[in-house]
Amino acid sequence: MNKISEIPEQTPIAEKTVVEMPADPWRCEECGSLRVSCQVWVDSNSYEVQSMAEDKDDLWCDDCAEHTRQIRESELMSDTVEPWWKDGTTEEDREIITGLNPENFSSKDDCKAFRNACGMWWNGKTNGEKIRMWRQAIAPEEE
Ligand SMILES: [Zn+2]
């Protein structure tokens, strides 16, 4: 009897390609989603990428379910999300977003303490969290 055949066949561990997210990933310009795709030309033999999509028509966002432009996360932050927080939100917006109550802060200097607290709260958030808040504010999900 062949001993080897008694060894139970090992279940191969499912090969899972763990693709690490790049430091400055592409995001949908409209909604900030990371679930974006682009069409590429690949060499039929080597599978090397020959050229990336340039046209909006070749770009796709799963969350928008539309062809949308894509930009680097750093650009989305500096061009859109940070300016939104700085200029696009009112004190009431910030009160709702941060959950901080301006009444708990001194009203001196046009509520400087409250504004500072909001700024610190915001700076403690990751890009992903900031983008989620921005997205929620610009396009509230319908209930
Ligand atoms: Zn999108």
| Helicity level | 25-40%
Distance between the termini: 67 Å
Uncertain regions: pLDDT < 50 for 5+ in a row?
A: none
Count of the separate structural domains: 1
Overall residue-averaged pLDDT value: 88
- SSE class: alpha+beta
The hetero compounds bound to this protein are: zinc ion
State the order of secondary-structure elements, H for helix, E for strand. EEEEEEHHHH
- Rg of Cα set: 24 Å
Strand line-up across the major sheet: 1-6
What form results from the Cα inertia axes? elongated
Count of individual helical segments: 4
Number of β-strand runs: 6
Largest sheet: 2 strands, antiparallel
Strand content: 5-15%
Structure summarized in a few sentences:
The chain has 143 residues and is of the alpha+beta class. Helix content is 36%, strand content 12%. It is elongated.
Question: What would your notes on this structure say?
Answer:
The chain is elongated and about 80 Å long. It starts with 25 loop residues before the first strand and ends in a 5-residue tail after the last helix. Helix 2 packs across helix 3 (108-123). It has 143 residues and is α+β, with helices and mostly antiparallel strands. It has helices spanning 73-87, 91-98, 108-123, 127-138, and strands at residues 26-28, 36-38, 41-42, 49-51, 59-61, 70-72. Strand 3 and strand 4 (49-51) form a beta hairpin. Strands 1-6 form a two-stranded antiparallel sheet. The chain contains four helices and six strands; from the N terminus they run E-E-E-E-E-E-H-H-H-H. The model has no long low-confidence stretch (mean pLDDT 88). It has one domain (26-138). Bound molecules: zinc ion (ZN).
